[in-house]
Design brief:
By secondary structure, the chain is of the alpha/beta class. The protein has helices at about 35-45, 65-75, 95-100, 125-140, 175-180, 230-235, 245-250, 250-260, 270-280, and strands at about 5-10, 55, 80-85, 110-115, 140-145, 185, 205, 210-215, 220-225, 265. One of its GO terms (molecular function) is metal ion binding.
Length: about 300
């Protein structure tokens, strides 16, 4: 497995608690990276020459601003492309947004700001607009992440109906618990492929504060604080892995059948079925389907 990017989940904590969040982000979540852990991750990334980019996400990474800032600076000093994903809560005015972003000038390559009706009471929030204006002035690339409401056709089969610039919901995590019942389900046996992740060569993986390396959120390939990234990549066999192997050979439906599960009749999308199956299988694969934070067990 050849990686090109690492997305660091700086924290599971978030000042928001959005219904669509597949990480169960909330003010009550626990788990935050230390600077020592970030340095260790960057050190390991240097030994994997195909890794070119380091992104900081959450939760909400700006909640731990000094650590986020230092992490970006350290990554940039080592020659990595850098990026941040944020909800932009801090951009209460353009002047304030400039103060938050100015220390990143010259080290931060890009920032993605979430803005939609899950985060704010308007699609393009004033915070998002303030962040965009400040980023433009500082020469930092900024883009928006907007997730459509279930009524806008965010099931897989309705992606073509989504408003321009919007992405559909993935019904996993809190979205599976809160939103799946708002869409018409499809027969569980129809979900015979993973539509979102390249499980053989993912390119990028997520690393959380506990060192878990996620090929998809909640499916860990190993703990990098126990086994280095290079070794995890070298030993990973997608076909024989107990979770990805099933997903590759028949999607979430195969994951359920192979493990003797009895799904309900219909599910909102492939992620919804996969989320349900993985929850059922956690006792059996506790070192893979981890940590509790990914499954809403706060």
């Amino acid at each position: 497995m050849k990686l090109t990017g690492l997305h660091l989940l700086l924290t599971y904590r978030c000042n928001f608690e959005c219904d669509h969040c597949f990480l169960w982000g909330s003010p009550w979540q626990s788990g935050t990276m230390t600077l020592a852990q970030i340095r260790e991750i960057l050190k390991q990334a240097q030994y994997h020459p195909s890794i070119k980019s380091i992104y900081f996400e959450g939760g909400e990474p700006f909640l731990y601003y000094p650590i986020l800032l230092k992490g970006i600076q350290l990554a940039a000093e080592l020659g990595f492309e850098t990026g941040i994903v944020s909800n932009g809560y801090w951009a209460t005015s353009k002047e304030d947004a400039l103060e938050w972003l100015r220390p990143f000038e010259g080290t931060l390559g890009s920032i993605s700001v979430s803005s939609d009706l899950f985060h704010y009471n308007e699609v393009l929030s004033q915070q998002a607009q303030n962040a965009e204006s400040a980023a433009l002035e500082l020469g930092i690339e900024l883009s928006f992440i907007s997730i459509a409401q279930p009524d806008d056709g965010s099931v897989e089969t309705g992606v073509g109906q989504l408003p321009e610039g919007f992405s559909g919901i993935k019904y996993q995590g809190r979205a599976a618990a809160k939103l799946a019942n708002r869409v018409e389900g499809q027969p569980w046996k129809s979900f015979t492929a993973c539509p979102y992740e390249d499980l053989r060569e993912p390119g990028r993986v997520h690393i959380d504060p506990f060192g878990q390396m996620h090929i998809c959120q909640g499916i860990s390939l190993g703990n990098i604080f126990e086994t280095p990234i290079n070794e995890i990549c070298e030993s990973y066999n997608a076909e024989t892995h107990p979770i990805t192997g099933a997903l590759l050979n028949g999607g979430p439906a195969e994951l359920a059948v192979r493990n003797g599960l009895s799904p309900e009749k219909n599910y909102a999308d492939a992620c919804h079925l996969c989320d349900w199956a993985r929850r059922e299988l956690r006792p059996q694969f506790s070192e893979i389907l981890t940590p509790d934070q990914m499954y809403g067990e706060l």
